[in-house]
Amino acid sequence: MDLFSEKKTILKLPNAELIYIENFYDKATANRYFDCLKQSIKWQQDDITIYGKTYKQPRLTALYATNEKPYSYSGLTMQPNLFTLELSQIKSDIEKEIHHQFTTVLLNLYRDGKDSNGWHADNEKALGKDPIIASVSFGETRRFHFKHRQLKDERHKMDLSHGSLLVMKGEMQDYWLHQIAKTKKTIGERINLTFRTLI
Questions:
Q1: Which residues have CB under 8 Å from 176's CB, separation 6+?
Q2: End-to-end CA distance of the chain, in Å?
Q3: Eight-class DSSP state of 161
Q4: pTM above threshold 0.70
Q5: Are 145 and 101 in contact (CB under 8 A)?
Q6: Beta strand 190-196 pairing with 81-82
Q7: Is the separation of the CB atoms in 116 and 145 below 8 Å?
Q8: Cα torsion for 92, 93, 94, 97, to the nearest 10°?
Q9: Do residues 59 and 110 make contact, with C-beta atoms less than 8 angstroms apart?
């Protein structure tokens, strides 16, 4: 079985381009990465402050990088761990596919359907203008929602499956918001890796 699938979907939308490869990793490879990442990553649950109220993030997170640059979002600053062998391999696989170099990966562990990530954009200054974000999913399939900030008819959703790769390009982080919503369905764990380049 091939490690990579050539089945690639390219979505060109106003102010954004998305690339989705459903079977970027075959099932056996994706299973191996899921098990390894769940055990080896230094997961944490941080507090975030939204509209003056402080909450526990509804998921576990971790930050890894090829350097020592911290990453800040939603009033939270994370200090990176050094890339593991597995994270370096995944990073290399993505870089070969899309011809872009990354320095940092923010990992999310969604423990069940109650864990989520609300509407947001990856538009921090440290990412520079029109950043490329590459998102790899392992584990349970979760629905990815995205909507244009100004064009009300531009609302979309797609399922991010086990072993898939989603790349967000162009002006997407300036003009679009995205989220992983809560679900009442009984579902298992999902690990998501979002690769980015800090300038």
A1: 13, 15, 16, 121, 146, 147, 148, 149, 154
A2: 37
A3: -
A4: yes
A5: no
A6: unpaired
A7: no
A8: 120
A9: yes
